[in-house]
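step=encode ok
step=design start
structure_in=
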């Protein structure tokens, strides 16, 4: 049996002696407590956090925990200037410091709406849509700033780490969770057949980690494996639902894009390169990050899996020979 609290008993005993209007006011007064508002904010899928006038994080809801991976106890009381989320523009420009939208709102009180990347606790970057707004008390006192953020479905139709519906363990790379090469070949052959039949756009990107051997040599194989997992997660966050991520070789991934070509392919490839360069993991006290070289190609009539991958491989070789951290596409892409 659940017994009412002493406070609820007191309210229940008092209500019968009040007028109807007074009863409404009395009942509504219980909804004005901070705990009620906190519970409501915790029900939201969006992330919400508040900072006071001294830049300290004073509230962090469950949506913020889900999206960022940072738990409430890890951030409360910390300065938001400590690059907890490492915001950056979609072109890769870092926004921590004076350029941070939250800091600017804290300075001038203006509301701002921006599409940004934030860095997950695990190191990969996530495209989000943010809104910052000044928070005032009922008396008008300005006490801080709130930021509300949500995954940006227009920037990427997130898969949450899935690989285009691949669920059978025998089709996945054990280390990264991406599809394995065999599954990717079968899937790409199917997409080429649909391209031949219906003319739908089809492109591929071959993504190679720059300097993975050096990471393995200087930091150890576990560090290299951590980089591979980070890259796989970062790439997965950038894919649309019908696209496929696969591990093609030890340090190379394949992205199969079923509705992308031309300028859109170049934009996506450049954004992918930037997002990877912004991602980082903590490794024995250091921030470990890498860059990637990318080569792409768009399907032609008469293509096979081998010819399409070969053209993308030629483009990748150009990116690698040019010093890495670069995107190369054939002119027809």
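sequence_out=
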């Amino acid at each position: 049996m659940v017994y009412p609290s002493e406070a609820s008993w007191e309210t229940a005993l008092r209500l019968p002696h009040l007028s109807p209007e007074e009863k409404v006011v009395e009942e509504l007064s219980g909804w004005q407590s901070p705990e009620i508002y906190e519970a409501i904010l915790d029900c939201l899928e969006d992330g919400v956090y508040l900072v006071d006038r001294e830049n300290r994080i004073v509230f962090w809801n469950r949506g913020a925990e889900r999206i960022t991976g940072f738990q409430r106890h890890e951030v409360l009381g910390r300065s938001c200037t400590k690059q907890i989320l490492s915001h950056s523009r979609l072109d890769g420009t870092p926004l921590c410091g004076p350029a941070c939208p939250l800091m600017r709102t804290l300075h001038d009180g203006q509301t701002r709406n921006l599409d940004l990347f934030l860095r997950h606790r695990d190191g990969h970057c996530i495209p989000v849509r943010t809104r910052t707004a000044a928070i005032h008390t009922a008396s008008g006192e300005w006490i801080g700033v709130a930021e509300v953020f949500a995954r940006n479905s227009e920037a990427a139709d997130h898969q949450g780490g899935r690989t285009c519906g691949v669920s059978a363990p025998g089709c996945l790379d054990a280390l990264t969770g991406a599809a394995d090469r065999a599954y990717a070949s079968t899937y790409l052959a199917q997409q080429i057949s649909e391209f031949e039949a219906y003319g739908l756009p089809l492109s591929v990107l071959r993504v190679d980690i720059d300097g993975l051997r050096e990471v393995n040599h200087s930091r150890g194989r576990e560090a290299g494996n951590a980089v591979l997992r980070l890259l796989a997660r970062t790439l997965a966050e950038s894919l649309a639902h019908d696209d496929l991520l696969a591990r093609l070789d030890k340090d190379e991934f394949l992205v199969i894009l079923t509705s992308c070509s031309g300028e859109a392919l170049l934009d996506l490839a450049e954004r992918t390169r930037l997002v990877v360069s912004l991602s980082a993991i903590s490794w024995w006290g250091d921030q470990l990050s890498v860059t990637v070289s990318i080569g792409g190609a768009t399907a032609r009539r008469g293509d096979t899996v081998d010819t399409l991958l070969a053209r993308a491989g030629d483009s990748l070789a150009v990116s690698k020979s040019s010093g890495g951290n670069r995107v190369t596409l054939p002119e027809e892409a």
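step=design ok
step=annotate ok -> Confidence is low (pLDDT under 50) at residues 1-16, 155-165.
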